[in-house]
Amino acid sequence: MTPPPIRRRRTAANGTAPAHNLPRRGSVRRAQAISTYGVGSLIAVDHESFVVSGLDEADRSWRRDESPVVHERRLARLLGVDCFRLPPASDDTSKDGLRVRRFPLMHSCPECNDLRPHRDFSPPAGRSICGTCEVDLVPSRFVVACEAGHLDEFPYWQWVHRSPDRDSTRFGKCGGTLRMRTTGRTASLRSIVISCTCGQVPEVSMEGSFRRNALKDLRLACRGARPWLGTSATDPAGCGLPLRTLQRGSSSVWQPVLKSALSIPPWSNGRADPLAEHWAALRQYEDREHIRIYLQGAFQGECPVSLDEVMTLLDAEREEDPQDDKASAFDHRYRALRNKEYERLRSGNDESEQSRDEQFVCEAPIGDQTVLQPLGITGPMLVKKLREVRALKAFTRLVDADSTTEPKEMPLSERPMRWLPAMEVQGEGVFLRLEENRLDAWEKAPAVAARVERMRAAHQRMLDQRADDPIHAVTSPATPRMVLLHTMAHVLINEWSLEAGYPSASLRERLYAADDMAGVLVYTATSDSAGSLGGLVAQGEPDVLDRTVRSAIRRAEWCSSDPLCMEAEVGGSTGTNLAACHACVMLPETSCEHNNILLDRALLVGTPEEPALGFFADLTAG
Fold first, then answer.
1. Degrees (nearest 5) of the Cα angle 508, 270, 36?
2. How far, in whole angstroms, is CA 120 from its chain's centroid?
3. Chain centroid, CA 51 distance in Å
4. Is the dihedral of CA 45, 49, 51, 57 positive or negative?
5. Is residue 246 a contact partner of residue 252, using CB atoms and an 8 Å limit?
6. Helices (H) and strands (E) in the chain — how many of each?
7. Environment class of residue 512 by beta-carbon count within 10 Å: exposed (0-12), middle (13-18) or buried (19+)?
8. Whether the model pTM is above 0.90
9. Euclidean distance between CA atoms 129 and 135, whole angstroms
10. Tens digit of each residue's pLDDT (9 = 90 or more) over 150-196
11. How confident is the model at residue 405 (pLDDT cuts 50, 70, 90)?
């Protein structure tokens, strides 16, 4: 195979060299730098593999002119940062980009079968080829990780020699060289054979390396490696957790922890927060006069925000802060953030009263809403314009970073940062609520409570297993109200993907399920204007919505996997679903807030044995 040409950085428009001599390895979309290839993730470029560097190094490479600042005050306060930054643009005008490091370092040569660190093959500068055979090197297919988020090389030497010795020399204390070959007899791990030229041990296949206790049996534990922060970076606090073997391209290697917020008034008019640098000082004052004096001194004249508005915002922030348990501040503020969105979606704001820069426009439909009363749906709102900011807070490994859990999160940098990577997206949507009296009567039914309790118990067991201490485990959010709203959002997305012209993967749900909330927002949000074409908003008119809901419920009555789907005692590998599968209500991962768990269409339409179980049972009775 002819090796690929050396990749060189383009010169600037004036013919000068770029700011550094690092080669460009590839490009990703901006959104992928948040959701798919964020800090700490592995990315394959051609026949090479890299890990995306942390923000400590990105602080030197994310140029200010290529990474615009994004403001979303409510989300920034929640995450404890001053602002957010877009990932650098990946185009011909880019002078820099995301930094990456080669990982895994262990490579094999398909010609001579040597298995050793990349540098030991003596490759030419900027190439990934065997210096002897001149063929492309193959990055190790296997890595190891722990649930704390650490990532390390697979211990090939220890695997072959069945040794826990992590202080081996360049080729191991045996003095031999590792070899990797494939027998070709099967497509299983049994055909991948590792050997050592020392001759002291027999060759060993990779079969069994993915067992949960495979490395624990060798007395190998995590040493806290963090290659995205440096080739020798380790966690100063140590680790010691069990290691799991993973395929380099497995989704379990990296899961983003994303937090998002809708921009709602008063900070949804497209302007940056003029008081962003002053809120910490303003929170120290409670007296109106002291705040007025501070603002006069800070701005040397007229403050761009009225004193009444500042007082209102400060009062709202104090209401959001927990009074007693500071440890629960994040959860408390995140619930308060959703509460504020729910209130604004209910009340709306008239487009005719807003400026052209307003990025949140929510109006009641013109049609007669009484047609929705038999459905138990009330208060539909047409969200004609919305802006959402999605920030990458951290990442996890081995466990899903869904919004219903707080797994062991790995920060994006070694030292605290005052900004986080984020995406700013525009869109439209439809918001609707369930009628409270009917909902209260339904969720108090013993059959409904018993069915949801099965899902809640299974989910709680999963959360307890993930927690270091079951006493501090996160409580499952599964309630009849939440599961009903979640499943209804999924069937609406499936229906609207047929009616509104958007594929289901481009529609998203946002649930508002609590004792004082029972609403769902289905919206489309993209990084360009394609999310605001009006096709989804048109589905929120009462007459159209009535037909849509009835059609969605009729489709939910039957699944191509019935009767197995409806009669299944558990759904999913963890039992956190009941009547739900990919043939009926499950959605693409980008559309669901909860990673397709806590779903049950029987709560919509009932079961053959208990038809009254469904909230919309009246629609299916005929």
1. 40
2. 37
3. 18
4. negative
5. yes
6. 15, 20
7. buried
8. no
9. 5
10. 999 999 999 998 877 766 544 556 778 899 998 877 778 989 999 99
11. very low
